[in-house]
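Appendix B. Worked example

We walk through a single record from start to finish. Start with the input: the chain for DUF2269 domain-containing protein, Cupriavidus basilensis, length 166.
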Amino acid sequence: MTYLTVKWLHILSATFMFGTGFGTAFYMFFVNRSKNVQAMAVVTRWVVRADTWITAPAVVFQPLSGLYMMHAAGYPPSASWLWISLSLYALAGACWLPVLWLQWRMRDMAGQAAQALPASGGATDATDATGIAPRYWLYERIWVALGFPAFGGLLVVYWLMVSKPA
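Next comes the structure step. The output line below is what the pipeline stores for this chain.
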């Protein structure tokens, strides 16, 4: 592959990674505030799929293509902007991996609550008024908290990727 092809794919995958991540986070954040269990079940299912099908491949491709371009363009491996980028990317990844696990659990809990809601007629001792287990809301708070450093770090990585400061 040529350098320009890899660069185009790198930019495209960065766009997919950040755009899909931000878009799915937006919908999941607001559907949770609706407390509509059926909507929560649908959205969490699609969030997990989008992160699996779109975000995860981009997450893997980003450092590989970035390191290839760095080498091909002759940037020294000791460039401070590169190490800051990789460190922030690692921070975002360290936040994103638990987020994936949380989303899978939240998807399962929302799906179970949506299936049980019509039959149960409401809350039980193990659920709130929506039929969602209280652990869902704990996971949701952690999910939100992990999103801030992940997205913030990636915004700085974008800036470093474009500006490559000395």
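Two observations about the output. Residues 126 and 133 are 6 Å apart (CA to CA). The chain is about 85% helix and 0% strand.
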